[in-house]
Amino acid sequence: MRDYLIERLYECSKKPYQKYFKKNEPWNIDKTSLMDYPKESLGFGLGSFLHKNHFDIQEKLEDHDIIHVLTNTGISVYEEIGMQYYLFGNGKRSLYLFMVMLTGTIFYPKRIKYFMQQFQKGKQALPYHYLDFSKMLLIPVQSIQQTFKI
To answer: Could you tell me if 73 and 45 are in contact, meaning their C-beta atoms sit under 8 angstroms apart?
Structure first.
């Protein structure tokens, strides 16, 4: 029930967040063309992630799925919340991130140890949350992970 409630909150908040808070331009790429990138590249990794999870690219939110690829984070509700803790540890600050962390902590108090582990992982990595990943799609995932200690 709580997973459903959190997912509904996300769905209700996603469109206003995209429209009013995300200032970046959409990438104008589809998931099928991502599969044409070299197999070890970030672009191919993103395409594989989207296909595997039956997702489409969400305009202006492409970076979110890139973080999934780079950190190997799953897509369950608590893992999504954990990813926000990771990003907080990595230096990202946004109202949306704080809202997810707050509601996640309230709804999943038994996962606080996992959230703190994710925070520590984000803190140990070099800051990279601000990068323009649309210009990095040809770079091998492993190179990015090694460079930023992900």
So the answer is: no
For the chain, the first-to-last Cα distance in angstroms comes to 33
Determine contact, residues 120/26, Cβ cutoff 8 Å: no
- Read out DSSP for 85-109? HHHHHTT---HHHHHHHHHHHHH-G
Owner of token pair 């770079």:
139
pTM of the model: 0.88
- Quick one: average pLDDT of 96-108? 93
pLDDT of the residue at 25: 80
Residue from 141, 125, 111 nearest 49 by CA: 141
Confidence of residue 33 (pLDDT cuts 50, 70, 90): very high
Q: What is the pLDDT of residue 61?
A: 84
Return the pLDDT at 16.
63
Domain boundaries, the chain: 37-147
82 by Cβ neighbours in 10 Å (0-12 / 13-18 / 19+) ranks as buried
Cβ atoms within 10 Å of 71's Cβ, excluding its own: 20
